[in-house]
Design goal:
Structural class: alpha/beta
Family: Belongs to the LysR transcriptional regulatory family.
Strand content: 15-25%
Distance between the termini: 41 Å
Low-confidence stretches: 300-312
GO biological process, one term: regulation of DNA-templated transcription initiation
CATH topology of the largest domain: D-Maltodextrin-Binding Protein, domain 2
Number of domains: 3
Shape: globular
Largest sheet: 6 strands, mixed
Domain HTH lysR-type: 4-61
Order of helices and strands: HHHEEHEHEHEEHEHEHEHEH
CATH superfamily of the largest domain: Periplasmic binding protein-like II
Keywords: Activator, DNA-binding, Transcription, Transcription regulation
Protein name: HTH lysR-type domain-containing protein
Mean pLDDT: 86
Length: 312
C-alpha cells in the first residue's frame, strides 16, 4: 500500500496554482527539472494522470482537479496550525513583509516603521517584487504580510484576506523648471506635456488614463515604469510630470525638490494589507493598521478618513 508524499503533493499544488512548472520552480527555489521529476514520481505513485499538455500549457485532468481540492484543504489546515504556533511565538519570530513594486516606497516605509518600535522586538525582513510573486510567497508562509495597491487577484486560489488600510487622491509633481514652462493652469497644462506613467501593473494606471480622457488632455507619455521609485527618480531629473498619492505630497516635494501642480480628487489610490489572517492579530500587523488609520490616511492627510479592516 502506497503512502502519500506530502512534499510531492505541495509541488503538485504549487504547479496547479501557478499554472506552469517554471513558475512553481521559481516560487519553490528549485529547478524546473527537479519539479518535473517530482511530479512524475507523484503521478506514478498514485497511478493516475495529473496533467495533460495542451500546446505549451499544462491543464489539470479531472482527477488532478479533485486532488487539488483535497490539497487545498490539507494545506489550509496546515496554515491554521502555523498561525496557532505563531500566536504563541510572536516575540521570537521574524516579521516578513512583501511590498509590491506599485506601492510608493515612502508609503511602505511609513506603514512598516512601527514594526520596529514594538515592546517585544522583532526582526524585520522586507521583500519587494511583483504582486503575484509576493502572494505566492505569502501562500507558503515565506511572508507574513503583503502591502499592495489592490486586493489579491481573483485567479489566485490562496486562502488570504484583504485589509483596506486607506486611500488617497493623487497629486501631480514636476521640477520647478518644467512647471515654469507651462502657460496653462492644471490640468490643462498637461496637454502635450511630458508624462511619466505608472505601468500596467499599477491599479492606478487605467484610472489616470480615463481621467485624462475625461479632461480632454493629451500629454506625451515619455515613459512607463513598473516601479514607483523609478518614476520618482525620473521625475526628479526633469523628464516629465508624474503622479503620487496626496498623503505623501509634502514628503515627495521636500525630498525630491519638486513642486505640486495640482490634486486629482477623482483618481484614488488604495493601499491594502494582504494576510493569511482573517483578523489581524500579529502585533506588528496591528501596529501597521493603526498607523494607517490614525495617521497616514487620517482625514486631513488626504481624502480618506482611514478605512477599517475588512476581509474578502
Amino acid at each position: 500500500m502506497s503512502t502519500l508524499n506530502y512534499k510531492h503533493l505541495r509541488y503538485f499544488w504549487m504547479v496547479a496554482k501557478t499554472g506552469s512548472i517554471a513558475r512553481a520552480a521559481e516560487q519553490l527555489h528549485l529547478t524546473p527539472h527537479s519539479i518535473s521529476g517530482q511530479l512524475s514520481e507523484f503521478a506514478d505513485s498514485l497511478g493516475v494522470e495529473l496533467f495533460r499538455r495542451v500546446g505549451r500549457k499544462l491543464e489539470l485532468t479531472d482527477t488532478g482537479r479533485r486532488i487539488v481540492s483535497y490539497a487545498e484543504e490539507i494545506f489550509n489546515t496546515g496554515d491554521e496550525l502555523l498561525e496557532l504556533v505563531r500566536d504563541h511565538a510572536f516575540a521570537t519570530t521574524t516579521y516578513r513583509v512583501g511590498c509590491a513594486d506599485s506601492v510608493s516606497k515612502l508609503i511602505a516605509f511609513d506603514l512598516v516603521e512601527p514594526a520596529l518600535k514594538l515592546k517585544e522586538p522583532v526582526k524585520l525582513i522586507c521583500r519587494e517584487g511583483r504582486l503575484d510573486s509576493l502572494i505566492a510567497d505569502l501562500a507558503v508562509h515565506r511572508l507574513d504580510l503583503v502591502i499592495a495597491d489592490r486586493p489579491i487577484p481573483g485567479h489566485f486560489s490562496v486562502r488570504a484576506y484583504n485589509h483596506l488600510l486607506g486611500e488617497s487622491p493623487m497629486t501631480a509633481f514636476c521640477t520647478e523648471a518644467l512647471a515654469a514652462s507651462f502657460d496653462q493652469p492644471f490640468p490643462a497644462c498637461l496637454h502635450n506635456a511630458p508624462l511619466l506613467l505608472p505601468g500596467e501593473d499599477f491599479a492606478i494606471h487605467q484610472r489616470l488614463l480615463r481621467w485624462l480622457e475625461r479632461c480632454d488632455v493629451h500629454p506625451r507619455v515619455v515613459g512607463e515604469f513598473d516601479d514607483s521609485a523609478m518614476i520618482q527618480a525620473f521625475g526628479r531629473s526633469g523628464a516629465g510630470v508624474f503622479f503620487a498619492p496626496s498623503v505623501i505630497a509634502a514628503q515627495v516635494a521636500s525630498q525630491y525638490g519638486l513642486v505640486a501642480l495640482g490634486q486629482v480628487e477623482s483618481v484614488v489610490e488604495q493601499v491594502y494589507a494582504i494576510t493569511t489572517e482573517r483578523r489581524m492579530s500579529h502585533p506588528a500587523t496591528v501596529a501597521i493598521s493603526r498607523l494607517a488609520r490614525d495617521k497616514l490616511f487620517a482625514r486631513g492627510d488626504g481624502r480618506s478618513d482611514g478605512a477599517g479592516v475588512g476581509g474578502s
